[in-house]
Amino acid sequence: MIDSNGLLIAYIGKSKKIIIPDTVMTIGNHAFYSCKSLQNVVIPNSVKTISNSAFYWCSSLRNVTIPNSVTTISDSAFSSCQSLQSVTIPDSVTTIGKSAFSSCSSLQSVTIPNSVTTIGNSAFSWCSSLLNVTIPNSVMTIGYNTFTCCKSLQNVTIPNSVITIGSEAFYCCKLQNVTIPNSVTTIGDGAFQMCSSLQSVTIPDSVTTIGIHPFAGCSNICISLSPKSSYKLVSNNFLTDSNGLLIAYIGKSKKIIIPDSVTTIGDHAFYKCESLQNLTIPNSVTTIDYGAFEDCSALQNVVIPNSVTTIGACAFSKCSALRSITIADSVTTIGDYAFSDCKSLQSVNIPKSIKHIGERAFPDGVLIVRY
Question: Looking at the structure, do residues 80 and 183 belong to the same domain, yes or no?
Fold first, then answer.
């Protein structure tokens, strides 16, 4: 079904191979939605735009040749094409939309040309077979979730045109080594979180902003900082900023002594640090932020020093081996779910200084004693 302006509104049929007529200029929204019989499609040189969800959930589609007339691959255009193995994007394309190839679980390779300036959020997320990606030096931003859960992705080349690596851009990838070019100024929240194979990251002095838990779950990582960096790597394990914020702990130690240069333990700084059993928090620390020690499943004892005023939400959530907590009388606030799912915790003494205890801060059945 084609209108007078060359818009392909819908395909009606069950063919395995489709040759789109050269009267078509735009493949419309959902034009081939859930066309599960489709295996091969030929797109003519007349087409300029592949619209939103045009081939969404064409689960048998194996091969696509995008002609050099196309300038835009829109949001979710090929999302959930689970049989799609390779895509060559021509150098006429300037925009790859949000989730354009998300959940293409058989996609192993993709060639992105230098003409592309925008890669949308989640563009290649959940492409679990994707092995290698070269990002062209025309791209300035790697957006939110761009390569999230590309669990086979081992190599990525980030060009020196990139300024921002977005939140969770490479979450749960199989990356081993990453060099961040000196054009990058921002590394977003959880940018490399749960990249458990990641061994080395080089961060240049151009980086002025690092979001929360950027390397959470990367227990084997070695971070290299430029000598001029505004960030510090204390004792080779503690990534901190110039204000004493502990951004991330890098290591596998059973016993951890946090440096006394730290004033705030940041969001998810020790997230899923499964080796941690014993912890010393110095008197310099005033705040333990959201999820700072969440899911530290081997942590047994915690002493909160009398410098701390705030224990944030979920700060020690899911610390299933935690048996003993000592909370100093400097603490005034315990956030929501701060000690939730701490299954080994039986009792806790709460000082009178505490003015606020958040929702479900402690597990059901825990004996709370005020002193």
Answer: no
Instruction: Give 291-327 pLDDT, tens digit per residue.
Output: 999 999 999 999 999 999 999 999 999 999 999 999 9
d(CA 299, CA 277): 4
Which of 83, 19, 23, 17 is CA-nearest to residue 47? 23
Express each pLDDT in 193-206 by its tens digit.
999 999 999 999 99
Query: In this structure, is residue 238 part of a structural domain?
Result: no
> Which own/partner contact pairs does 11-14 have at CB distance under 8 Å and 24+ positions apart?
11/35
Q: How far is residue 323's CA from residue 321's CA, in Å, rounded to a whole number?
A: 6
Domain end point (choices 169, 202, 230): 230
**71 within a domain of the structure (yes/no):** yes
User: Which residue range(s) make up the domain with 107?
Assistant: 1-120
* Residue 364 neighbours by CB under 8 Å, 6+ apart: none
What domain count does the chain have?
Answer: 3
CATH of the domain at 343: 3.80.10.10
Q: 23, 6 in Cβ contact below 8 A?
A: yes
Q: Tell me what percent of the chain is helix, strand and coil, each rounded to the nearest 5.
A: 0, 25, 75
Q: Which of 120, 154, 170 is the C-terminal boundary of a domain? A: 120
Are 68 and 34 within one domain? yes
Report the residue count for the chain.
Answer: 371
Burial call 81-100: b when 16+ CB within 10 Å, e when fewer: bebbeebebeebbebbbbbb
Contacts of 353 (CB under 8 A, 6+ apart): 329, 330, 331, 332
pLDDT in tens, 214-244: 998 888 888 999 888 999 999 889 999 999 9
Task: Label residue 275 exposed, middle or buried (CB < 10 Å: 0-12, 13-18, 19+).
Answer: middle
